[in-house]
Amino acid sequence: MVPLFQSQENIAGKISIEPIQGKKVDHNGVKVELLGQIEMYFDRGNFYDFTSLVRELDVPGDIYEKKSYPFEFSTVEMPYETYNGANVRLRYVLKVTISRGYAGSIVEYQDFVVRNYSPLPSINNSIKMEVGIEDCLHIEFEYNKSKYHLKDVIIGKIYFLLVRIKLKNMDLEIRRRESTGSGANTHVETETLAKFELMDGAPVRGESIPIRLFLSPYELTPTYRNINNKFSVKYYLNLVLVDEEDRRYFKQQEITIYRLQEETS
Amino acid sequence: MMLDGMEDEDKWLAEGIAGIQHNAFYMHRALDANNLREVLKYSAQMLSELRTSKLSPHKYYELYMRAFDELKKLEMFFKDESRHGVSVVDLYELVQHAGNILPRLYLLCTVGSVYIKSKEAPAKDVLKDLVEMCLGVQHPIRGLFLRSYLAQVSRDKLPDIGSEYEGDADTVMDAVEFVLQNFTEMNKLWVRLQLQGPGRLREKLEKERSELRDLVGKNLHVLSQIEGVDLEMYKDTVLPRVLEQIVNCKDELAQYYLMDCIIQVFPDEYHLQTLETLLSACPQLQPTVDIKTVLSQLMDRLSNYAVSSTDVLPEFLQVEAFAKLSSAIGRVIEAQVDMPIVGAISLYVSLLTFTLRVHPDRLDYVDQVLGACVKKLSGKPKLEDNRAKKQVVALLSAPLDKYNDIVMALMLSNYPRVMDHLDNETNKVMAIVIIQSIMKNNTCISTADQVEVLFELIKGLMKDLDGTAVDELDEEDFKEEQNSVARLLHMLYNDDPEEMLKIICTMKKNIMDGGSKRLPFTVPPLIFSALRLIRRLQGQDGDVAGEEVPATPKRIFQILNQTIEALSTVPTPELALRLYLQCAEAANDCDLEPVAYEFFTQAFVLYEEEVADSKAQVTAIHLIIGTLQRMNVFGVENRDTLTHKATGYSAKLLKKPDQCRAVYACSHLFWVDDQDGIKDGERVLLCLKRALRIASAAQQMSNVTRGSSGPVTLYVEILNKYLYFFEKGNPQITSAAIQGLLELITTEMQSDSAAPNTVSDAFFASTQRYIQFQKQKGGVMSEKYDSVKV
After folding, report:
1. Are B272 and B316 in contact (CB under 8 A)?
2. Which pLDDT value is given to residue A224?
3. Dist. CA B607–CA B604, nearest whole Å
4. How far is Cα B446 from Cα B456, in angstroms, rounded to an integer?
5. How far is B96 from chain A (nearest CA, A)?
6. Torsion over CA of B50, B56, B57 and B59, rounded to 10 degrees?
7. What is the DSSP letter of B36?
8. Does residue A161 register a pLDDT over 60?
9. Are A96 and A15 contacting, i.e. CB atoms less than 8 angstroms apart?
10. Which of B108, B126, B135, B196 should one mutate to test binding to chain A, selecting the residue with the greatest count of A CBs within 10 A?
């Protein structure tokens, strides 16, 4: 279990140091840091701290018995959410350091999770598009929104304007595209999170196939765009039609995922 | 190849069943443990077996039924929230997380059914959602079964009138809308099944498809079961929508089946009130649809309905059922250019049956139907197709069977016109049917006009039609036919002599055209029919003044004379002779001496010129003698001439015994035992004596040629004649003569050359016994016999 925060929250607590019975701790000072770090897996060991706040807790001296230090970071700006991706990790951590000159400092970490909520978007257009292969297949599809929250439902339909190939089935996939780095060092990882069968069998012209996909069963995150110039996570709906020879015809559309502020009153 | 396919299919089915059983096992475990997650997991896996494309509809049905049974258990579980702790609303969402569409939709329908039952949402919303989500399955077989499952689970949950699911928001309209939509989609899937697969497998596929039809038809059945579908809703919503789908699907099998379905599942009353709508769909169907069967079914049902209660008849009139059906049939025949003629005719047969049952009083309707049929047949060569011919016979027989009265048919102007389109053979068959109808019902045809029409109808029997090869006719069949005609002629009758005379003239005219083969059959009944009229007129005053030629015996006899004359040329002289004699007798009774004399003359002429066969001569002469004996109209001179002729011919017969018998028969010509009868005892005796002479000559001849004198039969016969005249008081016949004859016979019998003959001996013995009896019984007769000794 990890504590959960969101941006602008006060992060306060108490740090207790208790030496082993009969011993003392000699130190050059105690401090607690709040760090926001981005870790690229292909660049192991390299952290980029995008946030770093420090609170000095004690001046150099000795500790003979249990001693507690309350601390507080107020209204901390934490613009990014905790994220564990394929190639990148974004974490928040509290780091307590007891500095010692000779024997090395004592360091303790405490991770915590940040989630940021968004309000309902004021503009949320549907996605509507006609695509096709000439004289072969023409479809028109519609998703009711372009922005979905994590527990949302995708409602829509596919309308068959022309069908000259023998379709076998049709799926709707949710794909996550994570890109890390920049320029020549960009790494892109695509992952299919959901494969949801929309249609079984071959439709004829004029058929309209309904879409209703609940997002809640899938482990999605909000869309992240260019987080600290280090990475992005984007989501796509991929409509895939498969014919009897297992040829696949598809059309991919980006959707925005956000974390909706739950109304708890 | 085929066998392999079948075996493979069995294997696949077995695999599918095994898959269902396997997953059902784990599902049951999860059910027992109330573990919702596992239940959903295994039920979805179980239902995945239904995703197969390898099975024929028949086998797929088997698989489906397995899954269906399991789904019932699942439904029980879903229903009980305490077991899984999830509200039905959440459950409804939860099952939609399944990735595969087919298991997802089966689960959704199952939960949906529970959802409606819980009444947490309006039934119509759930139903609408389910029926629309099912659009995702476009595979014909899988889709049909899925929707059939939906129909099954929703059946008792429709917001029908009076149902617990009816409410402010839910109306019967929603129920109807739901079923209609499911029906439409199912039919589309069903029709699509046909479009798949190569042509060579078409037949097999059609058969498989046919097996699925009840899944589609079931929806119509459900519709008919909905209480709230009253006439108005049926008329405004249900029927137009269903018909729209039927017409638009453009599929032969579906159109035929569904039209039939409509007719079978909805009440007759609805059909009657929506006849126009229903019928207007017919011409829009595919040309290959067997529309005639559909329409026949409809008319059958409607006519049964009409017969069921007299109360509904006004409805039929009000909606002008006949006119609508009639014009619909016309349009269908027009629209379906390729329909074989037999189809068109059988449609008319159905319409006619309908008319006869529903509007038995409307002969004009019947005639209209026949007229329409004539129109269809006109301009075409005579019917060749046997089935078509049979249908025409059925068409023409129907009114006869209904009315049991040919006279009705004779009033139908189009009746003979339909018959004109039949070939000769069928024409005859029909003619026989007509005659049988008349005979069976004892129908009397009582006007000359009707007779004329009737003859027109049966002209196939009355004369040789063009194109019939004579040698094709079977002799026995021909006799049979002509006997029928003969019987028919007796049914043409009117009590009014004037009209009857006209009938006779009409008959004669038609019969005379019949040709030599028919005359022997048809003339006698004509003659006797005419004689019957004469007998009726007999008592009346013959000379009634009038502008028309009155029906007098004289005039009729003229007609008869001409008729028989025709017969004598055939030649059937014996028959003609008999008829002449019959006429003579009738003329005698009418006191028309010259006429009677003329007939006799004709008879004698025939005898002289035409009757050559000796046996025929014997018969003829006895007939002549018999008839002449009864004649009392002749004056002495005429009578003498005729009796003289008769006796003369008698004596000239070839065989002696025949001569003998004819001659002693002639004795009666001179002794008529009436009050005013001629009683010429002397000539009687002369005849008898002459007979005796001939008899003894016969004996002698026999002696010479055979060496035995033969039986004494002739003597005994003559003895009997003696006894007859003796008793009648002929003074010329004395007891002494009888005594002499008795002795003669006894001597003959005892002579050496006599061959014993039991027949003649017995005859003589009983004659002796008779004399003995007369002697002993007392009274005048005994005294008379007193001197005779036996």
Report:
1. yes
2. 96
3. 5
4. 16
5. 8
6. -70
7. H
8. yes
9. yes
10. B135
Q: Is the dihedral of CA B729, B730, B736, B741 positive or negative?
A: negative
Residue B441 tokens, joined:
């019902």
- Chain A environment of B99 (Cβ under 8 Å): 194-197
pLDDT in tens, B217-273: 999 999 999 988 999 999 999 999 999 999 999 988 899 999 999 999 999 999 999
d(CA A160, CA A166) in angstroms, rounded, equals: 13
Structure tokens at B677: 């009868």
Q: Smallest Cβ distance to B135: which of A208, A214, A217?
A: A208
Chain A contact for B139 (CB, 8 A cutoff): yes
Structure tokens at A120: 């309902």
CA dihedral B287, B292, B297, B298 (to 10 degrees): 70
Rounded Cα distance between B172 and B73, Å, is 29
| Residues facing A256 on adjacent strands | A147
Write the CB contacts of B606 (distance below 8 Å, at least 6 apart in sequence): B568, B573, B576, B577, B580
Q: Which residues pair with A131 in a beta bridge?
A: A139
How far is the alpha carbon of A179 from chain B, nearest alpha carbon, in Å? 27
Spatial separation of the C-alpha atoms in residues A39 and A96, rounded to whole Å: 20
Interface pTM, i.e. ipTM: 0.91
User: Going by C-beta distance under 8 Å and a sequence separation of 6 or more, which residues neighbour residue B625?
Assistant: B646, B650, B662, B665, B666, B668, B669
pLDDT in tens, B701-720: 887 887 666 668 888 889 89
Query: Residue A116 pLDDT > 90, yes or no?
Result: yes
Write out chain B residues lying below 8 Å of A217, CB-based: 97
Question: Residue A232: helix, strand or coil by DSSP?
Answer: strand
- Beta bridge partners of residue A138, listed in sequence order: A132, A162
pLDDT tens-digit map of B464-523: 766 555 556 677 888 888 888 888 888 888 888 888 888 888 888 888 887 778 888 888
Q: What is the DSSP string of B522-575?
A: HHHHHHHHHHHHHHHHHTS-S----SSPP--HHHHHHHHHHHHHHHHTTT-HHH
How many CA atoms lie less than 13 Å away from A139 in the CB half-sphere? 23
What DSSP assignment string belongs to A152-216? Answer: -EEEEEEEEEEE-S-EEEEEEEEEEEEEES-GGG-EEEEEEEEEEEEEES---TT-EEEEEEEST
Segment A11-25, tens digit of pLDDT: 999 999 998 888 888
Chain A nearest C-alpha distance from B299 (Å): 37
Q: Which residues contact B512 (CB under 8 A, 6 or more apart)?
A: B563, B566
Residues of chain B where predicted confidence (pLDDT) is lower than 50: 1-3, 542-547
Sign of CA dihedral A220, A141, B92, A192: negative
Q: Look at the block and give the residue holding tokens 């040329």.
A: B569
The per-residue pLDDT of chain A, averaged, comes to 92
C-alpha pair distances (Å), B377 with each of B114, B344, B382:
62, 10, 8
Q: Which two tokens stand for residue B457?
A: 């109808």
**CA–centroid distance for B226 within its chain:** 42
Residue-wise pLDDT for B89-140, tens only, equals 999 999 999 999 999 999 999 999 999 999 999 999 999 999 999 999 999 9
User: To probe the interface with B, which of A212, A218, A242, A246 has the most B CB atoms within 10 Å?
Assistant: A212
In chain B, which residue's Cα lies nearest the Cα of A157? B136
CA gap B150, B111 in Å, rounded: 11
Minimum CA–CA partner of A217 in chain B = B97
* pLDDT single digits (tens) B375-389: 888 877 777 788 888
Contact A200 B138 (CB under 8 A): yes
